[in-house]
Amino acid sequence: MGGCFSKPKPVELKIEVVLPEKDRGKEELSAGGKGSPRAYQGNGAARHFHAEERLPAPHPYPGAQDCVEAAVCHIKDLENGQMREVELGWGKVLLVKDNGEFHALGHKCPHYGAPLVKGVLSRGRVRCPWHGACFNISTGDLEDFPGLDSLHKFQVKIEKEKVYVRASKQALQLQRRTKVMATCISPSAGHSGSTNVLIVGAGAAGLVCAETLRQEGFSDRIVLCTLDRHLPYDRPKLSKSLDAQPEQLALRPKEFFRAHGIEVLTEAQVATVDVRNKKAVFKDGFKLEYSKLLLAPGSSPRTLSCKGKDVENVLTIRTPEDANRAARLARGRSAVVVGAGFLGMEVAAYLTEKAHSVSVVELEETPFRRFLGERVGRALMKMFENNRVKFYMQTEVSELRAQEGKLKEVVLKSSKVVRADVCVVGIGAVPATGFLRQSGISLDSRGFIPVNKMMQTSIPGVFAAGDAVTFPLACRNNRKVNVPHWQMAHAQGRVAAQNMLAQEAEISTVPYLWTAMFGKSLRYAGYGEGFDDVIIQGDLDELKFVAFYTKGDEVISVASMNYDPIVSKVAEVLASGRTIRKREVELFVLPSKTGDMSWLTGKGS
């Protein structure tokens, strides 16, 4: 299967009321709707939602007074393959011309509000320039991730060589469409000890699995359980915005879960899974039978093992509470971050404006070295140094010293002593699969859950997705890999749900991730492990560049800053199954000072 997962559906208008958000267009800010999750008690049946508590039904299809229609251009104004933002008075629309046909859609990506006109049009879909989400231009449906919602699709007609677009005023203002979902017809009352689908883990994979089941018409019971005290939230934002409150991070408001009969058990830890009897036993003794199971437990942060590791104010970041605590402790004080990967560097960047001083300790000689290579890592390091961050490279922590029980100093193996009131540890994570050791479900030597392309584990009816799995990656010849990215977790959750419904879907998405530091974004697509060369175009000192990572004769990944939409373009080429050769990059990219990338879409090769 290609990148398109969803079956075309009749066009229906789903109305939701979203308060206007000033921040919607700012890239690294709000994602998803706002809601105020409340913590549900972790004891037996009290933690269930009641399926009877329903949202009011959406409004019927809007009448003429709710619509606006306007001529937006002449039919010759757009060439095939072109996109344009057009104004309808109540809001903008993305007008697309593809194969001689015009399509009109919402103009902003529902994930973080990116302008889709700056994205990539290819194979009947538009790909977001910021984070790589893909939308079908004929339906507006979300076909690749991140994000949860689709685009509105508007009516287009041609009259006297003019293109007219007709749209509902409400849809123009909302800029997002939640797909129509089935209602749960088997409420939990009376049989709380069994569920049709049990989902362990409420990150992106778990939530997308539950939503996909409902979108595909599944109306039986779904239970989603999480160790967290919150409903599903935007976890990648924790390290980029440490002060964010849980209600700002919520991916869906609590009313959403009620309306669609998705029960969430918070602070619920699964202790064991009995696959023979299809039963999960929780830490508090609560037992739940299931017929289909998704394991999406994510990972647990690695901790330091040195002397003084249990000193107060040394923390990892996994929850909003952890993030908020780090920000509070660092305010006006000395902060040390251990680990110069994505999490550590995002935390260090955020703390520069809050803390008196920020230091980073890392074993490698440059930040992000394994991921982005020496030259890009050094350029990013310079940006941090210009923002008063001090680096202690090629060393590690040998001791954490306390005064009156609280952290006072970090002692390094290089024998340097760094003053510290708070220490944030970002040295990677391990799959949170300890509870599966006796289950009979296969785990590999590192504790990951191996799955096939359909996200099925070694046990039929048991699926797994997200950070805790290894799976065959299509764009690297089905090599079994672990890709702990937010976008990939969404895609895997969707494929698992489709296969619970016997749709025979396969995972084929191209990994896509991003990071934001000091208001600058870095985008990345592909799987670059094992790269042996890096070809850079642009200016590293100015942080305006694209880096192609190659292995042998093949481009295996790409990273960029201030070079949109190159990463989305490469992701689209890789998603189409085409290989980009190293010599193509050398031939077309390096001589071209303009950064002309038309060769990528097939015109040049």
UniProtKB/TrEMBL annotation:
Keyword Metal-binding (UniProt): yes
Q: Which GO terms describe its cellular component?
A: cytosol; endoplasmic reticulum; mitochondrial inner membrane
Q: Which UniProt keywords apply?
A: 2Fe-2S, Apoptosis, Electron transport, FAD, Flavoprotein, Iron, Iron-sulfur, Metal-binding, Mitochondrion, Oxidoreductase, Transport
Q: What is this protein called?
A: Apoptosis-inducing factor 3
A GO biological process this protein is involved in? execution phase of apoptosis
**rRNA-binding as a keyword?**
no
UniProt-listed InterPro entries = FAD-oxidoreductase/Apoptosis, FAD/NAD-bd_sf, FAD/NAD-binding_dom, FAD/NAD-linked_Rdtase_dimer_sf, Reductase_C, Rieske_2Fe-2S, Rieske_2Fe-2S_sf
Residue ranges of every copy of the Rieske domain listed in the record: 70-165
What's a Gene Ontology MF term here? metal ion binding
Principal location listed in the UniProt entry:
mitochondrion
Job of this protein: Induces apoptosis through a caspase dependent pathway. Reduces mitochondrial membrane potential.
UniProt-annotated stretches for the region Disordered = 24-45
Q: Which Gene3D superfamilies match?
A: 3.30.390.30, FAD/NAD(P)-binding domain (3.50.50.60), Rieske [2Fe-2S] iron-sulphur domain (2.102.10.10)
Family affiliation? Belongs to the FAD-dependent oxidoreductase family.
Classification via PROSITE patterns: RIESKE (PS51296)
List locations, semicolon-separated: Mitochondrion
